[in-house]
# Entry
Amino acid sequence: MRLSGPSLLGVLLIAFAGNSALAATTAPEPAPPPLAAEHLKVEAMPAWSPHWLYAFDDSFNNETDARVWVYDGDHGRALGQFEAGYYGNVAVSPDHKTTAIATTYWSRGGHGTRTDVLEFEDNTKLSLQGEIVLTSKKAQSGAMGPFNLSYSPDGRFLYVTNLTPAASISIVDVAARKILGEIDTDACVLAIPSIDGTRHRVSMLCENGRLLTIVHDDAGKETSRSVSKPFFDVDKDPIFVQSVATPTGAYHVSFMGDVYEIDLSAADPRFPAVWPTVSAKERGHWRPGGQQMVAYHPSSHRLYVAMHAGGEGTHKLGGSQVWVTDTITHKRLARWSIDEKKYGGAFCMIATQDEHPLLFVATEKSSLLVLDATTGKLLHAEDKLGQTLWQLLNP
Amino acid sequence: MRLSGPSLLGVLLIAFAGNSALAATTAPEPAPPPLAAEHLKVEAMPAWSPHWLYAFDDSFNNETDARVWVYDGDHGRALGQFEAGYYGNVAVSPDHKTTAIATTYWSRGGHGTRTDVLEFEDNTKLSLQGEIVLTSKKAQSGAMGPFNLSYSPDGRFLYVTNLTPAASISIVDVAARKILGEIDTDACVLAIPSIDGTRHRVSMLCENGRLLTIVHDDAGKETSRSVSKPFFDVDKDPIFVQSVATPTGAYHVSFMGDVYEIDLSAADPRFPAVWPTVSAKERGHWRPGGQQMVAYHPSSHRLYVAMHAGGEGTHKLGGSQVWVTDTITHKRLARWSIDEKKYGGAFCMIATQDEHPLLFVATEKSSLLVLDATTGKLLHAEDKLGQTLWQLLNP
Amino acid sequence: MQQRFDRLVERASRGLARRTSRRGFLGAFGMVLTGSALMPLLPISRGSRAEAGEPAAPGTGKPMSPKASASDPNSCDYWKYCAIDGFLCSCCGGTSSTCPPGTTPSPITWIGTCHNPVDGRDYIVSYNDCCGKTSCGQCTCVRNEGEKPMYRLSLNNDVNWCMANDNPNYHCSVSVIMGVAGK
Amino acid sequence: MQQRFDRLVERASRGLARRTSRRGFLGAFGMVLTGSALMPLLPISRGSRAEAGEPAAPGTGKPMSPKASASDPNSCDYWKYCAIDGFLCSCCGGTSSTCPPGTTPSPITWIGTCHNPVDGRDYIVSYNDCCGKTSCGQCTCVRNEGEKPMYRLSLNNDVNWCMANDNPNYHCSVSVIMGVAGK
# Structure
């Protein structure tokens, strides 16, 4: 190898060193003074706000390059992003300091050796803290939701859902950054976490409309499992797997617009009476749809559902309206229209959990709308954020 | 790990086996007969056609997922694609059987360990044949062109351009699939190949407007180098690095619309007299622009240049027109308009090399237009192919 | 009777699952289901006739005027695509029932029923993914007649059906006619 | 005088290049160029005044009516971005002169001159890339005042200026004021 010729271009510059003396001597006018030299640096993350959003962009046309945006709802601006690989499943830790991403990579872009990993991102720096290599079983589904990857309520364990198509979960010890074990879930899917006293539990939806609940010990070993009676009818009116977490479990809506609550606050799962978001007259004509079609704000007990007019098979159509229902009185409080022509229908939604909540709405055109969750007023609109926003998170 | 429960969903189906007996017994009407069962298989590539196009999509918003489309201009349809990594440099072998892609991968999407590779794709199967791992120096430039990666005219060697920012080329023995060595190019860029008798040569453009030509032996070692007199003025009217190969070298156009030929058919490079594509009146008002703004059809000696009305600094603006000039008489033959409103300006162009040539035009909106290269008639338009088409190849 | 048969096959397949590795199981399962065992397991979609904009001609149950695009394999309206969610392989170098060159079909998949307005028949189709290259990115098509959530995996089009392939990268989707649906 | 100085620095830097490794060279080169040695090497763009749609007020050389967007750092029209080709970091979590959290600035870059219509001055700016994450994908901005092809690397914005970073993945671009341009 011969490298004897002059081998560097002569005019490359190091830009960290703006020289302000230089500016002072050459200013052509006496006033105003020239702009000061700037110094290239890396922006620091601001202090955490409950109005931060974590938005998963699947990048469906370039699916090996998914990413998670961190977005400041108050200032209507992106704070930065994480890489999220291929079909990344995302969860933010209960202390909102870490974003966990379970995803798949290849040694050569989309080919070569497959490696599934669980990556831990530092939310205070937007930088990668570390990874755990997983077995190559991670569930890959476009139906992103809060329970494809989930933290236990105390942040101690992470539950990674697997599908090969055999279904199982891997239990990760978060502090030790270690996979404790894998538990078969009998073809049931999701990982809805709860704690009963000191017992860590994970619940999941089964094909026959039942809830499977698995209790595990601190070593990640299953200690018991129980199966509920059927609480929904898969054939007559299935519930979406994309649901919203509540302090005691989850709200799922059904294709026809009924609300199914899973209450895991007691020793056995409870299923409070099902209630409708649609009137008898609307039923079958208006229905929930999209990708993450339900949001919830606990202290004001409001449920937000993306609704559209349509028939069977339209359950992935975004909402032309957001319907707001009181979860205690079951009364509808509002119907807010989405500018479908401009943004497409409401596709994903999440409400912040503070006392002045925002409702984030990602649309079919991958716009991001920031609404006042109390009044429905549109506070800010990002015409396009990423390529295909498929999940919104706000721990 | 406990996996004793029933662990597979019961209703998965293998679809390779369509059962046509099943169809025959259940048809509800006597005529017409029901459609026959289909059998899932993989499409075979058709026989090669000179009207095939290789189109590089940089996927600029998701740049780790670039790809190369193979497109059939006669039937106006995609034949398939190759993955092309990050800033892939692409070359099709002279026998049009192989596509070589020099690119960059990481072990974790866009992070982790970097590996630069030269991948060999089988054009008759659209499958990966093999790879050579490169040193991590590969040139990464958005100014894709025919000479960022190039085959020697006999297909024996491949020249990989490097930029760290020191410039060099790596010489690859194609048959042996082996890097022979690396040659420093004294800050000069590109790799324009030629053969003088039996001597393999590579030429490149230098900062001072000269052409550097390096001769190498069969082992990839430099045996001599020579530098031409300046043949263009970098400050007054630079030539684009994106040029078009000719049987004896290349045509480069300048920012102002002059044509610079590099003729490598003799022992020393020759630079025929520069001639303009613009009239004296048009000069400075109409200019070439875009990404791959020049195409050439040898036997009809026609040069195609993407032109727009604009001033200094507009040299990346796509063409509102394609100007056709005779390379022998230097007379303009035609000005063809592009529907800019619908497609955006003409951004990349290439002419097929047969006797009934097509002109492929990729636009600023990543549309792909298929024109009759003789008449300018629009034969087919693909409203959108990929995300950002940045290079067209037709070996 | 069908239900009982379903349970039998299901029990047999679960037995297999317990005794074999993942890949071994899929191979064996494939053999079990090939041929006459296929029919009883097929779920019948009720959706194809209910599609908005395709009113039935009175008394016939057939649509009066099928859309022209319902017979164009490059259009999402194509009748066979009644529950595809993804990129149409016919825009990616394949056809409505073949994978593009250089990709690999998914051996596992899900099954639906689509109504063909031309001959008035309902056909059983399998929706397979073609795998091993990054997203095709052309002709995104989302239709969901009879589609169910992930806990009913055999009727779900959200999961990546390339999941069991050596390279589970999703490229595009096809719809393969298996036969006429029983009435 | 300036030309002679250029050649001196260039010769010195080439000498360095021969004696040191790539990374070693860049470090040493950086020190050579920091401070007063910076000025003579700066190429002055002639383009900022020639921009279409910004006619000069007679006799002043200043534009008559700067566009409002010329003072919006999230707009591609922002005066400092006169030769950026890429994603604006101000839309990606950074600002017009800072990289987004978690990315790494490129130590090497190219330099241009942009005209600030507010104070009528020409400023020397360095266009740095922020590196180490996949494409930001927001606010694509392509302007090329004074930009030159790749053989004049120090005036080129097509190459990936993240090339010398540990992770050369391109994320977005900033424009950093270095000082007022000499007349």
Chain B has two helices and 29 strands. Chain B touches chain C through 52 residues (CB under 8 Å). The domain at 277-389 of chain B is CATH 2.130.10.10 (Methylamine Dehydrogenase; Chain H). The CA atoms of residues 56 and 68 of chain B lie 4 Å apart.
